[in-house]
């Protein structure tokens, strides 16, 4: 057992979250968190970037990017390096030594919806859920005219998160 150091009061109005994929499109995002994690086969590591949508109807939602930077599959490493390169270019960070250098810099993520994939659990095939992935990244000034207005307009008239701390 672990003592909590007091009594935890549960909030029934703050249970779960919305894990449905956001619609395909272009979203202004920031890297809100990053971490290097061991892969499931324990033969490499990946950089996980938690991307937060910062404007529009889906502001506050998170999209996860996993970059297989250390993997026995060279093709996976090549894809990860191209993706990291696109993120660096989109954020204007042309040389980084730490993933924290990418945090809180706005960029455009071109998001798609991936169909549900089957997986095995206890010897029984299950069907997962649809999910989001990012096709590419662009600097903020390169959002296309096809981006939905709700995704490129400021949410609720308040300053975007990256401008709030500047004041």
Q: What is the H-and-E element order?
A: EEEHEEEEHH
Percentage of residues in DSSP E strands: 25-35%
The number of distinct helices, counting runs of at least 4 residues, comes to: 3
Kindly identify the CATH topology: OB fold (Dihydrolipoamide Acetyltransferase, E2P)
Report the structural category.
alpha+beta
Broad CATH class: Mainly Beta
Q: Report how far apart the termini are.
A: 45 Å
Q: How confident is the prediction overall: mean pLDDT?
A: 87
Task: Tally the beta strands.
Answer: 7
Order the strands across the largest sheet as they lie in space. Answer: 3-2-1-4-7
CATH architecture: Beta Barrel
Rg for CA atoms: 18 Å
The biggest beta sheet is recorded as: 5 strands, antiparallel
Helix content: 10-25%
Number of domains: 1
* Overall morphology: globular
- Poorly predicted spans: 147-158, 160-167
Overview in brief:
The protein is an alpha+beta fold.
Notable features of this structure?
alpha+beta, 167 residues, 7 strands, OB fold (Dihydrolipoamide Acetyltransferase, E2P), globular, two-stranded antiparallel sheet, 5-stranded antiparallel beta sheet
